[in-house]
Specification:
The protein is mainly alpha-helical and 143 residues long. 61% of the residues lie in helices and 8% in strands. It is built from 5 helices and 3 strands; from the N terminus they run βααββααα. A 3-stranded antiparallel sheet has the order 1-3-2.
């Protein structure tokens, strides 16, 4: 990862905390600039703009990590967007917080179900593998 950008344009008050360029985040997470712009287009990241330059905050960096973690566990873009909305609710009202909690619990349940399905598939593959290996070892092939 390159060193976070420390140079700030003239209006430093509005840019306090925006220390990462698109290149910084792309390098750190192993992404393309295009991928970061995709997440921006979807409203998942909201960098400040100074001319043509995008500047990302520490919060944007954390949100990007959440996006990538969500992708890794099989969440859809819509599910990740919903999750990020929950992340933004730190100052939300009780109804919003309960809704976010329900979304998180639902996602956790879905992931547990997927894990169980994967474990069953793995067990079946291991069983078939043992059968085929036994056939090969016993010389029961057409060779």
């Amino acid at each position: 990862m390159s060193t976070p950008t420390r140079e700030k344009p003239n209006d430093t008050h509005n840019l306090a905390g925006y220390v990462y360029t698109i290149g910084d985040l792309a390098d750190f997470f192993g992404l393309t600039h295009r991928a970061l712009r995709f997440y921006e287009d979807k409203g998942m990241l909201k960098p400040k703009r100074v001319g043509q330059k995008r500047l990302y905050s520490k919060k944007d960096r954390t949100k990007l990590r959440l996006i990538l973690n969500g992708k890794q566990i099989g969440m859809t873009i819509r599910e990740i967007q919903d999750f990020l909305e929950s992340y933004e609710l730190r100052d939300g009202n009780e109804r919003q917080m309960r809704e976010a909690l329900n979304k998180i619990r639902s996602q956790r349940l879905l992931l547990k179900q997927r894990r169980e399905s994967i474990e069953m598939s793995l067990a079946e593959l291991e069983r078939v593998e043992q059968i085929i290996a036994g056939m090969v070892d016993a010389g029961l092939t057409d060779d």
